[in-house]
Amino acid sequence: MNDTEIDRLERIVGYVLRVGSLASTSILAVGLALALLIPSFAPAQTITHIGLFVLLLTPVARVVASVVEYTSDRDWLFASLTFTVLVIILGSVLVGIA
Amino acid sequence: MPISPPLALVLFLIGGVAGLLGALLGLGGGVFLVPFFVLVLHMPMHMAVGVSLTTVIATSSVVSAGTAGRHLMNMRLGMTLEVATTAGALAGGLVATALSARTLQGLFGVVAVLTAVVMLMRLERRNVRSVGAGAEPGRLGGRFYEAESGGDVVYSVRRLPLGLAASFIAGSVSSLLGVGGGIIKVPALNAWCGVPLRAAAATSAFMIGVTATVGAFIYFWHGDVVPAIAAAAVLGVLVGSRAGFAIGARARARWLKLLMAVVLFIVSALMFVRAVS
User: Fold this and answer.
1) ipTM of the assembly?
2) pTM of this structure
C-alpha cells in the first residue's frame, strides 16, 4: 500500500467516523429530549436505543471499511489484522448475548 | 435508574466537566466520570463503567474524525495494536462481569493512583521527538508535518511486542474500569516504541473507540448500559471536550496536571474506602 492509498483509507475512515458520530449524537439528543419532555412516550426509549447502537457500530463500521479497503488493495497482512479485530468484536457481541 | 430532567442535567454537567478535563489533560474523561457516577450519584459500579465506555467511544470517534487526514494518527500501527487492545477488552469484559463491584472499585483506586503517578512523572515531557530527515519509517512507522519545527517528523516503530503487551493491558483495563486506556498506551508507545508523543496520543485516541466498543457490548447485554443515561453523559462529554479543545491550553497544562494528580489521589482514596466499607 503506497502513500496515496493510505491517504484514501484515512479519508474513508474519517468520513465514516464523522457521519457515525454526528448521526448517533443527533439521535441520542432527540431520544433524550423526547424521553424528558414526554415521559409517557414509549418510542423515545426506542430512539435512544437506536442512537446507542449507531454509536457502538461507528467504530465497527470503520473496521469493516478497513477490511474492505485492505482486501481490495491485496494487503493481506493488514486485511487479516483488521479482520481479526472484527472477529473479536463479534465475539464480544456473541458472549454478551450468550 | 429512571431518567428525569434533574438527573439528565447532572449527568450532562458531570460529563461536561469530565470531557473538559479530559481534553485539557490529553486523557479521556473516563477516569473522572466513573468516580463521579459512583461516589456522587451512587450509581452501581458496573453501570458506571458501561456508561463511561459509551462516552469513550463517542470521544474517540469525534476526535479521530477531526485528526483524520492530518497524518498524525498512525492507522497501520493503530490497526496492528488494536488486535491486542480488543483481545484485552474481551478478556477484561468477561472478567468484569464475574467480579464484584467492590473488587472493581478497589482496582479503580489502584489505576487512579498509577494514573496520577504517571502524570506527575511526565510533567516536564515535551511533545517533540524529531528524527533526522533521512530516517526510514519502515512498515509501521509514520511521518507527519509539525508546525512548530516547520518540518516533517519521521519515526519508525521499535519493540513492537512491548507495544502489543501494553495495548493488551490497556484494553483489559478499559473494559474493567470504563476508561480509554490511553494513560497506559501513550507513555509505552512513546518511551518504548519510539513513537512521538503527538502521534502516540492521536493513534491511541483512534484505538480506544473500537476497544471500548468491545467492552460496551458486553456491559450492554448485561443490562448495565441504560440508553437515556448514556445519552445524557455522552452529550455532556462531547460538549465539554469541544470546549476543552477550544481553550486548548495543553502547553500550559502543568499546574492543571498537578491539580488533577491531587484530585486523582483523593478519588482513589475514596474508591478504596467505598471498596472496603
Assistant:
1) 0.93
2) 0.91
